[in-house]
Design brief:
This protein is of the alpha/beta class and 745 residues long. Helix content is 42%, strand content 18%. The protein contains 24 helices and 26 strands.
Length: 745
């Protein structure tokens, strides 16, 4: 048993809710249309309006803004506004990343400027699908405009735009330009690597040789005055063949703090006399170590401001991971049963059991019979059982005071045999509270079963669930895509419900293995449904002869008996086709009594006729439970093909009557039919199944031997032992529950 630290649960849930909320916020950001669109077109228009009639103008160049509120927003923006610049250009990396959140933050940051602004498309703007956001919110990745006597050109150094296309476009722009000044902006430096390049930034240059050489040759040939770039955390001026290359970084974020690496912006003055460029330092009076600390703080501050939601997303994810690792490593685990639990006080007293089932009489099914046998067995031990079950059209005259019928909301099936009762009636809850149960036992993982689980938590009593049904084989009854229900929903439903209960009863070892495979971790008891062995062992000989005569069974007929609901999941067609195969091989001494009713009866009848088995197969229909022993004793062999069982209860009944079994191997059958001892189990292969049946039909001595051994096997599943073991399981769960040696999922 695992000891859980209780304070981790609310922390885990709150972290999970925070994580879900942040994820939903990110989804919102991606789906919600931004407020800004084609910003550059409006900014260029404003630049023209501001500079109309001016002979000269000033603009500022900033680089590596990275959404920095601490430095750029609080210090540089106010200085730019105070200095009276005509406009501002970011030489690259204005955003910390291409996410929608970063773009929204840079819009808020630049809104503090009292002048127009333009951005250069750089690496950060392009990352994380940011190229689409830049194009939508600002404009093309490369563009140009003329103002006064200056030609401004913006290029894309990221590779998102075709390099060859940009070179052709640049050639046409420069060749046709008559402006006195030509100024270029590109996010990545195009010149040779600088000696003072900071550590880890040696790859922050334009790395395509053809594009780089093409740009440089055009700059020199067409007399470009200055090329501004960023992406390095330094300031550098380099003049080559008449072209000045200015690298500016440090408008926000981390600075290395060397002679060339410092926080700054660039003051550019354009006049008829030429272009003057001056870097404007910030915090020049700070000591070197303090500037380094300040640079680190700027980076951290920017990260929190721009990406605080992503930061919380990361933190909540790390909290969930830490809790998971704590549970794996720190919390003590003991996967063995807790032998310190003493169930003795509960074993020797009569218990009050609240029981919930979606099926009950007058509807006859395996679950119904199992519920009834458990109820009667527990009451025989002295326990008191209050059963909540659906109400049917037919009156239930034998209902006692301890059976509470719930009104039906919806009925489906050919005869309305499947009922969805109303679980919301206050009367049902009041009845259980007044009953004051010690424990609650549910037989379905939904509807009334869910009500039982809910009431167990409200009344603070343990809940036991019996896994009766392989839900994945009932996908044809569910109004959902078959693959979705069969492969996902059914297993999830069983796992989730089982782990919410304090105990699960499974009828076979293979059923328990299935539950463990899908992730069920709660206490389990492997216990097949008990049968009244004595009732099936002996019948009245005269009544048996009358029934044999009424059905027209000849003395030399080998009678095959099969008991099941006539429905698709019972695989009856397989059995009929195998019998038709025997008939085609000349074996005609058999008669099959197919006992049961269901929605597929008319279809099965038509298949019997189509396969030429009309004289060999009798659809007996539904049989009252007290007459079932007669039909088992009419038979020589019990045949079965269903693969949807969790246990072979009808097989155990047939064994009690001394019948050997021929079945298809499946999870519920494999633990009951022992090959060559009480019958045979085969793959779902008609030839193999028919061959095993033929060997039994041809050998009366083999039938007798296997039949006797089948009776011995069935004896171990008597209903008395069944009820006693369930009561013992209740006692263990109650002791565990009330000593606090359990934990809820």
């Amino acid at each position: 048993m695992r000891r859980r630290i209780t304070w981790l649960r609310p922390l885990y849930i709150s972290s999970l809710l925070l994580l879900l909320g942040l994820v939903m916020h990110q989804v919102y950001l991606h789906l919600h249309d931004p407020d800004q669109e084609s910003v550059h077109a409006l900014q260029v228009q404003q630049i023209h309006q501001r500079l109309e009639g001016h002979g000269d103008f000033r603009f500022a160049v900033v680089g590596n803004v990275n959404n920095s509120i601490r430095l750029f927003g609080n210090e540089i923006v106010p200085r730019l506004n105070a200095e009276g610049f005509d406009f501002v250009v970011s030489a690259g990396n204005a955003v910390s990343g291409g996410q929608e959140e970063s773009y929204r933050n840079v819009h808020r940051l630049l809104a503090g400027l009292e002048m127009p602004y333009l951005l250069t498309f750089g690496d950060n703007e392009e990352s994380d699908f940011g190229s689409f956001r830049f194009y939508e919110q600002f404009g093309p990745h490369f563009f140009s405009f003329l103002v006064d006597d200056a030609h401004f050109i913006f290029l894309d150094g990221t590779g998102k735009s075709s390099f060859s296309w940009q070179l052709d476009w640049l050639e046409r722009e420069l060749a046709a330009s008559t402006a006195a000044h030509r100024i270029v902006f590109i996010g990545l430096p195009v010149h040779r690597e600088l000696e003072e390049t900071p550590v880890f930034e040696s790859d922050h240059y334009l790395d395509d040789p053809a594009f780089r050489h093409g740009l440089i040759s055009r700059f020199e040939r067409h007399g470009v005055d200055v090329v501004f770039s960023a992406n390095l955390t330094l300031f550098s001026r380099l003049q080559t063949n008449g072209v000045e290359y200015v690298t500016t970084g440090g408008a926000g974020g981390l600075i290395v703090d060397t002679e060339s690496s410092f926080h700054h912006y660039v003051d550019v003055h354009v006049s008829s006399q030429g272009i003057t460029i001056e870097p404007v330092r910030l915090d020049v009076d700070l000591p070197a170590w303090l500037r380094t600390v300040d640079g680190v703080w700027n980076t951290v501050y920017s990260f929190f401001y721009v990406s605080y939601l992503r930061f919380l997303l990361i933190v909540s994810g790390l909290i969930l991971l830490a809790i998971h690792l704590h549970r794996l490593v720190v919390e003590e685990r003991d996967y063995y049963p807790d032998f310190d639990v003493d169930p003795t006080p509960y074993q020797v007293r009569a218990l009050r059991v609240g029981m919930y089932s979606n099926n009950y009489f007058p509807f006859v099914s395996g679950v119904t019979i199992s519920v009834e046998r458990l109820r009667q067995g527990l009451e025989a031990l002295g326990d008191r059982v209050l059963l909540f079950a659906p109400r049917y059209r037919e009156p239930a005259c034998d209902d006692g005071g301890d059976i509470e019928r719930a009104p039906t909301l919806l009925a489906f099936g050919e005869k309305g045999e499947f009922r969805l009762s109303n679980p919301f009636l206050p009367r049902l809850r009041r009845r259980l509270r007044n009953f004051k149960p010690d424990i609650i036992h549910v037989h379905h993982p939904f509807w009334l079963g869910s009500l039982g689980l809910f009431m167990g938590r409200r009344l603070k009593v343990p809940v036991v669930y019996t896994y009766h049904t392989r839900l994945e084989h009932y996908a044809h009854f569910v109004p959902l895509p078959g693959l979705l229900f069969r492969n996902l929903i059914s297993h999830y439903l069983i796992r989730r419900f089982s782990n919410k209960c304090q105990g699960v009863v499974v009828p076979t070892d293979s059923a328990e293995e299935y539950l463990r495979v899908i992730g069920v971790t709660t206490n389990t008891l492997v216990q097949p449904t008990g049968i009244d062995v004595k009732r099936f062992r002996d019948v009245d000989a005269s009544r048996l002869a009358e029934r044999r005569e009424a059905l027209g069974i000849a003395d030399d007929d080998v009678v095959l008996v099969s008991v099941s609901r006539i429905s698709k999941e019972k695989n009856i067609e397989f059995m009929l086709e195998a019998l038709a195969l025997l008939l085609g091989q000349g074996e005609s001494r058999f008669r099959l009594l197919l006992v049961g009713d269901g929605p597929a009866r008319s279809h099965i009848q038509s298949r019997v006729e189509a396969l030429g088995l009309a004289e060999r197969v009798v659809l007996v229909g539904a049989v009252p439970p007290d007459e079932m022993p007669l039909y088992y004793h009419l038979g020589d062999v019990f045949v079965f093909a269903s693969k949807s069982e969790t246990q072979g209860m009808v097989i155990l009944e047939a064994m009690s009557a001394g019948l050997p079994v021929v079945s298809v191997r499946s999870s519920g059958i494999d633990d009951v039919v022992i090959e060559g001892e009480n019958g045979f189990k085969t793959p779902e292969n008609r030839e193999v199944w028919a061959g095993r049946l033929r060997s039994l039909m041809a050998d009366p001595q083999l039938r007798a031997t296997l039949g006797e051994q089948a009776q011995v096997f069935a004896q171990s599943h008597d209903v008395t032992a069944f009820a006693r073991r369930i009561h013992g399981f209740y006692a263990f769960l109650l002791a565990q529950y009330h000593t606090g040696r359990h934990w809820r999922r």
